[in-house]
C-alpha cells in the first residue's frame, strides 16, 4: 500500500504534466521511429516519411540487414528473387493465318542494383504501401507482359501453323532474344523463356486427327491388301510349282512308259525278226538241203553203181590173162575216172 502523501495542488499538477509529457514523448517516438529490417532475397528502398512535405530518398539496403532506429523513415521492400509467369494464347495467327494455341512461361526478376530506379521511375511508391508480391505483379503487368506476349506472337507468326510445333526451340530463342532486347535498359532481367506448346485450335486438331486416322486406316488396309496379294502370289506360285512338278512327274512317267513300251516293242520286233530269220534260215537250209540232195542224186546217179563197183573191185577176182598193155589200158583209164569223182556224203 502506497503511503498517502500530502502534496500541494501546484506540485501535483506539475507531476501530472511531466507524466503526460513523458507518455506523449514515448508515443511520438513509438509512432515516428522505426528500424526497417530486410530479409535475404529482398532489397529495401528507404525514404523519409515527413509529416508535411515530400518524401526523400535515404538509402538502399540489401537483405539481410536493417536501418537501425531512425526517425520517420520508411522502407519499400522489393523482392529480387526470380518470378515465374505463365501466359496462355488462344488466337495467335500463324504465317498461313491459322489460329494457334500456345503456352509460354517467363522467368524474370528485378535487378537488385537498380531498385532505386525501379522505385522512382516505374511507380513502385504509392500512397498505400503494397506487399513485395503485389509490387512485382504490378511491374509485370505494366512493363513486361506486353513485350513478352508480343514477342511470342511475332515469333510463332513466322511459321506455318502445322509446322510451328516442330520449331519450338527456335521460337523459344526468338522470344527470349526479342524480350531481352525490349527490356535491356530497364530494371528487369529475363532469366529464361519456355514455350510449352503450340497447337492448332480444336476444330483443326480434330480435322487433323481424323485425317491421320483416315491415313492410318488407309495404310492399314493397304498393308492388309498387300499381304493378301503376297499370300495370293505365294499360293499361285506354289500352285504353279506343284502343277509343274506334277506335269514333270507325269511326263517322266509317260516317257518311262513310252520307253518301256518302245523297249518291249523293240524286243518283240527283235524276237520276231530273230524268229523270222530263223524260219528263213530253216527254209533256206531246207531248200539248200533239197537242192544238195537233188544235186547229189544227179551227181551220183549211175556213178553210184560205178563207185560201188570200183570199191568192190578188190573183191572181184579176174582170171589171169597175160595180154599186152594195149588190152588193159582202157580198163585202167575207166577206173581212174571213177576215182576222181567226189566222195558222196555219208547218210
Secondary structure topology:
Elements: H1 9-32, E1 33-38, E2 42-48, E3 57-62, E4 65-71, E5 73-79, E6 83-93, E7 99-110, H2 115-121, H3 132-156, H4 168-182, E8 188-199, H5 202-300, H6 303-311, H7 325-339
Antiparallel strand pairs: 1-4, 2-3, 2-5, 6-7, 7-8
Structural class determined from secondary elements? alpha+beta
Q: What percentage of residues falls in helices of 4 or more residues?
A: 55-70%
Q: What are the secondary-structure elements, in order, as H or E? A: HEEEEEEEHHHEHHH
| Strand line-up in the sheet with most strands | 3-2-5
Number of helical segments? 7
Mean pLDDT: 80
**Radius of gyration of CA atoms, rounded to a whole number:** 74 Å
Beta-strand percentage range: 15-25%
Morphology call: rod-shaped
Sheet of most strands = 3 strands, antiparallel
End-to-end separation: 203 Å
Unreliable stretches (pLDDT < 50, length at least 5) are 320-325
The count of DSSP E runs of length 2 or more, i.e. the number of strands, is 8
Short description:
The protein has helices at residues 9-32, 115-121, 132-156, 168-182, 202-300, 303-311, 325-339; strands at residues 33-38, 42-48, 57-62, 65-71, 73-79, 83-93, 99-110, 188-199. It has 347 residues and is α+β, with helices and mostly antiparallel strands. It has a three-stranded antiparallel sheet. Strands 6-7-8 form a three-stranded antiparallel sheet, covered by helices on one side. A two-stranded antiparallel ribbon has the order 1-4.
